[in-house]
Amino acid sequence: MNEVFKALADPTRRQILDLLKNRDMTAGEIADHFHMTKPTISHHLNTLKKTELIQDEKRGQYIIYSINTTVFQDVMNWFFGVMQSNPIHKGENEK
Amino acid sequence: MNEVFKALADPTRRQILDLLKNRDMTAGEIADHFHMTKPTISHHLNTLKKTELIQDEKRGQYIIYSINTTVFQDVMNWFFGVMQSNPIHKGENEK
DNA sequence: AAAGTATTTAGATGTTTATCTAAATACTAT
DNA sequence: ATAGTATTTAGATAAACATCTAAATACTTT
């Protein structure tokens, strides 16, 4: 879970997720959207893959990346948890 | 927005938010929950404050910290955006 | 005003991380 | 098999970050 948050902390990696939400893409296509070398993007893809935020599939000489929304559920749950303050103490902010 | 994600990337800072979701706390009370020096916690509090994930209020010799859920909305919106894949292309993952 | 408590600021240090270039691997097509 | 294309691995470097100790600031109480 900590690894997921760390993965999301980088703007390039979040942009990759934004790209993949529209359609699956090869590593090269993804790299073409950035002003960075392919090895750098490959590193970011690997970071995302390790957290299972994305998955890859080899097709011929290409590797196709796609988003995996399963892990997002967990992150969302943490957010919901934080946003539901304890009602006994809620309102103290306004004092 | 990038600063918010970077702030959330540290486990100690997320734990601070977990503490503050229950009740407001002084800097000292927060620090007592961790095996770290007070300056270190102070630094984390400052990072959270800069992103407006928390706010502080001076009361006498204490400084009371509280959570600010406003910013969480923005982060949540990003997540919702990523999780709604483009329907035209959705389903290609299963191929 | 002096002493005590709460918190932050300053400065230093070791670790992690984003990025690069160069080289390696893997597949395709001639 | 050779050449070409796609992608990753390895190794290096510089910047960012978490943490510490020591010192400073600010408030309270005697």
TrEMBL record, chains A, B:
PROSITE patterns in alphabetical order: HTH_ARSR_2
Pfam family, one: HTH_5
CDD domains in UniProt: HTH_ARSR (cd00090)
GO MF annotation: an example: DNA-binding transcription factor activity
Name of the protein in question: DNA-binding transcriptional regulator, ArsR family
Transmembrane segments: none
Keyword DNA-binding: yes
Protein transport recorded as keyword: no
Keywords: DNA-binding, Transcription, Transcription regulation
Limits of the HTH arsR-type domain: 1-87
